[in-house]
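Predict structure. Chain length: 244.
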Amino acid sequence: MAKYAVIIPAGGKSERFGAGEKKTFAQLDGRPVFIRTLELFINRADVCATVLVVPPEDLEQMKQKYAPNLGFMGVKLVEGGALRCDSVARGLEAIADDAEYIAVHDAVRPCATEEMIDAVFSEAAKSGAAILACPLHGTIKRGSAAGVIDATVPRDNLFEAQTPQVFRAELLRRAYAGLPADRAAITDDAQLVEALGEAVALVANDATNLKITTKGDLTLAAAIIKSRPARKLSKFGAFEEAQW
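Prediction complete.
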């Protein structure tokens, strides 16, 4: 069985989520969003390491409130950087060389299923690099600076990138070894691998693997989770409900 390490970047300022709360810590059907995301990976037999990367301003809160639980889950806590790519780079430093593949998954994308993860892991094992992506079905408009339609964009072969994004460990390390000076424009890991001239496979997925950005997304995520069969009992067991 191939060994996969998982990096969970939990950065972002949550500016669109609303004042006074970060989406990472928001409650989703009784547990923090990031905990529900970690639970997607901690019980998988093919995952050999899970690294949670948090911004410096959240590190103390994470340690004080959740460190014992993260330890119980076998999750390593790492301080992140200023940008998402900086945080993933620090997560890479925390992963041992025995991992054959490395997956990166947003901490605020808690609705991925075991089947979704199986599919992208499997494709990465065949092709060396793969991401989940949702085909665009609606009519796509490009807006102008004046706030009017500039053009209608053909949607053929257009996808919205999702996570997990999974790569051969050597490939992802090589991609991050050459981070450009203008890192603010890097919004996902596949961009860096593409820049090496390497092909990245698309694994078609659906929109239920949503990324929580607004309060409305949180409500939608709760509805998605409740509509699915109950997950297998996690490492927390009966201890979970009282803890959160």
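Summary: DSSP finds eight helices and eleven strands in the chain.
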